[in-house]
């Protein structure tokens, strides 16, 4: 099986984690050395020692963020356009509750869990609420008296979906038409999103609420990656009075509006890029097709209307372009930032070590000078002592001679 595009992110994440592991070792080792220098001799002062200790914390904090880093895609659009259905289709399973009326009542984040477990976690709590099946999940979400901007995290076994395995996190939202707190939504849930998907209803046209939401997103984020899905495209095939040519006209009208929105209004992409960001799909049909495939049946058994194959291909095309975009954007925005921070930490440390090394060299030279001086003094003393000793010896010698002379003189007398 060929490697998925998202493996770029997974590989880059592993590599940068390994590098940071090495940086951490290096920082710890250096800090131990610096602490010893501080204790033994006053080469390093307290402030410097504390600065080195702060690097240990800095690197540990970056490592923690790195462990948690993932690619994030957030879905927005009017109520009932099919946001939850699109996510389910991408996950190949009905995980998120979907239905007529206002279904999703808070932010729901689907992310991969290890160990085959499925559970929920509410904002501000570490408690794992076990989820056995989708019905229970829907009930759990309904029972919660949650504010629309709060977040429920749904952990779903990684092995059930390749996108979850590759660290993609899905964020589902309530309809943009039901909230007055769109700014809070963006601040709380969108700032670190790598890709946004605007889910439209192909049966109608883009609403002012949808447009306004993305205007705010593009004001707060620089050049967000936005995909537009014209969902429920299967419904167009069911229009009895629709001729093929009329269908093509509606499609080109929608396409033109979407491209204009991305290029002229939001100014987030050029014409060519924008043309690669607009799709006509049926989420419900794609999900049904994938559920059939999982049972070993041909996908068209999930078809809702004529033209299934084209819509199914278009959904797959969207997924391919989406994967390419999300992994590139995540590697660039997330890891570029981390590697430049890593570089600045190691750069700071190096210049500090250079300073310390210089100080040590000066200190050593000073010691050497002191040693030399001392040696000279000792040598001097030795010479002096030798001289004194020699003089003493002479004196004693003379004294002895004198005494001997006196004694023999006295004896002779
Ligand atoms: P809220 O959570 O209420 O904001 O809605 P949503 O945007 O998440 O829509 P949801 O996925 O719940 O879909 C609403 C209804 O539309 C459900 O009954 C879906 O089965 C149906 N639906 C979603 N996508 C399609 C589609 O492509 N074609 C058709 N025919 N029905 C769809
Ligand atoms: Mg929903």
TrEMBL record:
Instruction: Report domain Dynamin-type G positions.
Output: 67-319
Query: Which segments of the protein form a coiled coil according to its record?
Result: 371-413
Provide GO CC annotations from the record. mitochondrial outer membrane
Tree of life domain = Eukaryota
Give the stretch of the parent protein shown, with its full length.
1 to 413 of 747
- GO MF annotation list: GTP binding; GTPase activity
Q: Which UniProt keywords apply?
A: Coiled coil, GTP-binding, Hydrolase, Membrane, Mitochondrion, Mitochondrion outer membrane, Nucleotide-binding, Transmembrane, Transmembrane helix, Ubl conjugation
Give the record's GO biological process terms. mitochondrial fusion; mitochondrion localization
Where in the cell? Mitochondrion outer membrane
Q: Which gene encodes it?
A: Dmoj\Marf
Membrane topology annotation: Multi-pass membrane protein
The protein's name is Marf, isoform B
Q: Which reaction does it catalyse?
A: GTP + H2O = GDP + phosphate + H(+)
């Amino acid at each position: 099986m060929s490697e998925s595009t998202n493996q770029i992110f997974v590989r880059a994440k592993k590599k940068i984690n390994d590098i940071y592991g090495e940086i951490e070792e290096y920082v710890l080792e250096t800090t131990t050395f610096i602490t010893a220098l501080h204790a033994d001799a006053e080469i390093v002062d307290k402030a410097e020692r504390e600065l080195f200790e702060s690097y240990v914390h800095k690197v540990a904090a970056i490592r923690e963020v790195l462990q948690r880093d993932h690619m994030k895609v957030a879905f927005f659009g009017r109520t009932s356009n099919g946001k939850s259905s699109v996510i389910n289709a991408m996950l190949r399973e009905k995980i998120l509750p979907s239905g007529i009326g206002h279904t999703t009542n808070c932010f729901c984040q689907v992310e991969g869990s290890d160990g085959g477990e499925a559970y929920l976690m509410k904002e501000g709590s570490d408690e794992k609420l076990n989820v056995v099946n989708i019905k229970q999940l829907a009930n759990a979400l309904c029972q919660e008296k949650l504010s629309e901007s709060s977040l429920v995290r749904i952990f779903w076994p990684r092995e059930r979906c390749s996108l979850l395995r590759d660290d993609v996190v899905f964020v589902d939202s309530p309809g943009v038409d039901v909230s007055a707190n769109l700014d809070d939504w963006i601040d709380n849930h969108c700032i670190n999103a790598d890709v946004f998907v605007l889910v439209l209803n192909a049966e109608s046209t883009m609403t002012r609420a949808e447009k306004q939401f993305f205007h705010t997103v593009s004001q707060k984020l620089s050049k967000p990656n936005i995909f537009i899905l014209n969902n429920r495209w299967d419904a167009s095939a069911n229009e009895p009075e629709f001729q093929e040519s009329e269908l093509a006209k509606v499609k080109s009208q929608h396409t033109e509006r979407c491209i204009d929105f991305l290029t002229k209004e939001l100014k987030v992409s050029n014409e060519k890029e924008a043309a690669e960001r607009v799709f006509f799909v049926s989420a419900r049909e794609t999900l049904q097709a994938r559920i059939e495939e999982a049972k070993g049946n041909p996908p068209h058994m999930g078809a809702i209307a004529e033209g299934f194959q084209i819509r199914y291909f278009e959904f797959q095309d969207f997924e391919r372009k989406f994967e390419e975009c999300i992994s590139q954007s995540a590697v660039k925005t997330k890891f570029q930032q981390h590697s430049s921070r890593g570089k600045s930490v190691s750069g700071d440390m190096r210049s500090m070590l250079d300073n310390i090394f210089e100080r040590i060299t000066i200190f050593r030279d000073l010691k050497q000078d002191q040693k030399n001086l001392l040696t000279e003094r000792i040598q001097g003393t030795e010479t002096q002592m030798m001289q004194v000793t020699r003089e003493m010896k002479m004196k004693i010698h003379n004294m002895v001679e004198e005494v001997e002379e006196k004694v023999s003189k006295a004896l002779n007398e």
